[in-house]
Amino acid sequence: MWCLELLLPLLFLSDVSGQWNVWVPRDISAMTNSCVVIPCTFMYPSGIRPYRGTHGIWYFGQPYPQLFPPVVFKSRTDVVHESYKGRSKLLGDLNQRNCTLLINNVGSEHSGRYYFRADLGGANMYTYPDFAELKVLDQPNIDVPEEIVSDESLELTCYAPDNCPDMTPEIQWMYTDYLPDPEFSSDYVEESNTAVLSSTLTFIPRPMHNGQLLGCRVYYSNTTLVYERLISLDIKYAPRSVWVNVSSEVMEGSSVTLHCEVDSNPPSRISWMFGDQEVVWDTASNISLSLDDVTPAQEGLYTCVGDNSYGAMNTSLYLAVKYPPREPQVNESVTVVEGASLALHCSTQGSPAPTLTWLKDGELVGTITADELSVLEISEITPQGDGLYRCLAENEHGRASSSLNVTVEYAPVLLDESKCTVVREGVQCVCMATGNPEPAIEFYLPDLNVTINETDGRFNFYTHTDGHTSTGMIKLREKGERVENGPAVNVHCSISNVYGRESVLLELQQEKKYMMAVIVGTIGGVAVIAFIIAAVRYVGHNNKKENGNPRQDVVLENPALYYSAVKKDKQNLRKKVVRHASEYDGGRPSQIVWAQSRRLLRQSCWAQSLTPF
Ligand SMILES: *[C@@H]1O[C@H](CO)[C@@H](O)[C@H](O)[C@H]1NC(C)=O
Ligand SMILES: *[C@@H]1O[C@H](CO)[C@@H](O)[C@H](O)[C@H]1NC(C)=O
Ligand SMILES: *[C@@H]1O[C@H](CO)[C@@H](O)[C@H](O)[C@H]1NC(C)=O
Ligand SMILES: *[C@@H]1O[C@H](CO)[C@@H](O)[C@H](O)[C@H]1NC(C)=O
Ligand SMILES: *[C@@H]1O[C@H](CO)[C@@H](O)[C@H](O)[C@H]1NC(C)=O
Ligand SMILES: *[C@@H]1O[C@H](CO)[C@@H](O)[C@H](O)[C@H]1NC(C)=O
Ligand SMILES: *[C@@H]1O[C@H](CO)[C@@H](O)[C@H](O)[C@H]1NC(C)=O
Ligand SMILES: *[C@@H]1O[C@H](CO)[C@@H](O)[C@H](O)[C@H]1NC(C)=O
Ligand SMILES: *[C@@H]1O[C@H](CO)[C@@H](O)[C@H](O)[C@H]1NC(C)=O
């Protein structure tokens, strides 16, 4: 098996002759407790004739005899170093320049350099500087690629030295059960006179195999010698899972931690992205994103990206931020004119989306909507539409509301309370009207061609305004002088604001409940039917105290007749009276009424003589 061509380049000694040569394997290995044969041949200068045979010595460690290196073998004696006693044996025939050495039962202490020294007798002794380096292994070697990448075919080779002639190693792979379709192949390589048996395991590693153990066992049949080496697979793989929390919801103001765990080898650069903005990153197996005092602006899609040099992967979650409704935005308070149509807008934010409800003065108006915007449409608003409108936003986390006032402006309307009544000093006329803006009240006495209003200081005019209701009051007193046959005094009340004006004839009543009002002015100059209540019985408390007051005589002629007729229908005094008059046209009672009324009118000095004061 020695191949000269192979050995030739190995050595050329510094010796001038160039003939001191040895051929030993530079490296040779053996399993502990097995044996090793170090093949060896040597040359010496042809001029030398060995004296008394060719001898040789094997040294361990170093070549210099003067340093007394341990003797492994010596052909002249059998004195060898302690650790080689009974172990070493020269297999070669020195005379054949064959210095092949056997060491049995090698241990790790035998690892090292072995030098051969030729002893040809006399001074012809020479230690060859070339050595064989023995490695005594207690485990087989496994060739593992520097980088094992998932899903790429992997070859692992286990080596067993085969340099012990009596013992043949065998190689077995261990823990391969879980591997998908493992393939095994053996090889036997001889090199530099040393032999190595190898077994190659081929399979496609997967991420799941990362960190798993594989083993190679070397053993010698019919011995108890077993050698094992275990390796842990380090399989590189791109992120294969990016785990994040399930999408979740948090209350505004609270804290939340989003966790991300990436399965990859090596660990990925993990980052949390909010939208396309990177919030936090680290190179680790997991990363946490802590959000304190969460705001609605932080609601959205969070993506965790894992990236190592083998690939990238991402997973997203949606973080919902819950919060009670914000104060709704509603229109500014508005002032509109009766009959106008308007739309009130209310919008708010909240999560979950709030419902919106419109309330007017506490009562539900419109529909409850779940939209972001609720529009309350009011068409042709009436004065009753005036009020406080509140938009209420509610969700499960709270409620909020905003209000606005809708002010409806409208033309004046005369109230039922308007009337003239007889009082002790004369006649008191009250005029009440609502309107917005509140109506101005003015009295007009057409008979006297007198207008009485607030700004006119000449008369005793009392006004009062309460909200949209205005009240005006005047008192007319008997002047003393009576004008015979003069017309009755009519009192007109004029109510006005920017939206209209009405003029009303106030009727004189004997009882508070009876008020006669005839619209005169605004509705188009209709002729006023002056209707004067003829008989007034003033049964007031005050009058009783003032027996003998002349006005009683004047005013009250025969009130019973009229009064009884009136009592039948309080609802429509005027109509009733007129109808009675015609019904009893030929009859006495009606004539009496009429006659007495007329006489009363003529005689009614109060009418003519009353003057405002
Ligand atoms: C040297 O001796 C050994 C053992 O006897 C033998 O196996 C080997 O072939 C010899 N080498 C040469 C080159 O003759
Ligand atoms: C092991 O021993 C058995 C008998 O004991 C023998 O048949 C077999 O050849 C031996 N194997 C080796 C490798 O020496
Ligand atoms: C996310 O998962 C981690 C770990 O399981 C947990 O501690 C954390 O509270 C979770 N966060 C949310 C918002 O569920
Ligand atoms: C998260 O990573 C840290 C180191 O960055 C590690 O100590 C911890 O065990 C990991 N947690 C999990 C659940 O993997
Ligand atoms: C997440 O992965 C998808 C493909 O799986 C890719 O289109 C997207 O750009 C990735 N997103 C981020 C933020 O890396
Ligand atoms: C209320 O506001 C909305 C939008 O801001 C507007 O369209 C609407 O006309 C407003 N309504 C009133 C009565 O001002
Ligand atoms: C509505 O009017 C009332 C009474 O005039 C007032 O107290 C309140 O502040 C007003 N509200 C708004 C929103 O203008
Ligand atoms: C009423 O008085 C005004 C002046 O105060 C006068 O101009 C007007 O002509 C009078 N009208 C009547 C009908 O007398
Ligand atoms: C009140 O009446 C006088 C005349 O009688 C008039 O000049 C004045 O404008 C009136 N004022 C109002 C507020 O109507």
Write the layout of secondary structure elements.
Layout: H1 4-7, E1 21-23, E2 27-31, E3 36-38, E4 41-43, E5 55-60, E6 71-74, E7 88-90, E8 101-103, E9 112-119, E10 125-137, E11 141-143, E12 148-149, E13 154-161, E14 169-174, E15 183-191, E16 194-203, E17 213-220, E18 226-232, E19 235-244, E20 248-251, E21 256-265, E22 268-274, E23 277-284, E24 286-291, E25 300-308, E26 311-322, E27 329-330, E28 334-337, E29 342-347, E30 355-360, E31 363-369, E32 373-378, E33 387-395, E34 398-414, E35 419-423, E36 426-436, E37 440-445, E38 450-452, E39 461-466, E40 469-478, E41 491-497, E42 500-506, E43 508-509, E44 517-519, H2 541-545, H3 550-555, H4 559-568, H5 573-583, H6 588-603, H7 605-609, E45 610-612
Parallel strand pairs: 2-10, 12-19, 20-26, 28-34, 35-43
Antiparallel strand pairs: 1-4, 3-8, 5-6, 5-9, 7-8, 9-10, 11-13, 13-16, 14-17, 15-16, 17-18, 19-21, 21-24, 22-23, 22-25, 25-26, 27-29, 29-32, 30-31, 30-33, 33-34, 34-36, 35-36, 36-40, 37-38, 37-41, 39-40, 40-45, 41-42, 42-44
Helix pairs in contact: 5-6
The protein binds 2-acetamido-2-deoxy-beta-D-glucopyranose (9 copies).
Beta-strand content estimate: over 45%
The rough form would be described as rod-shaped
Quick one: CATH superfamily of the largest domain? Immunoglobulins
- Major sheet summary line: 11 strands, mixed
Uncertain regions spanning at least 5 consecutive residues: 1-17, 480-487, 511-613
Query: Portion of residues in helices?
Result: under 10%
CATH class group of the largest domain:
Mainly Beta
- C-alpha termini separation: 156 Å
Alpha-carbon Rg, integer: 64 Å
CATH topology term of the largest domain: Immunoglobulin-like
CATH architecture tag of the largest domain: Sandwich
Enumerate how many helices there are, as a single number: 7
Distinct compounds present: 2-acetamido-2-deoxy-beta-D-glucopyranose
Q: Estimate nothing, just give the exact number of structural domains.
A: 6
Could you report the average pLDDT, rounded to the nearest whole number? Answer: 80
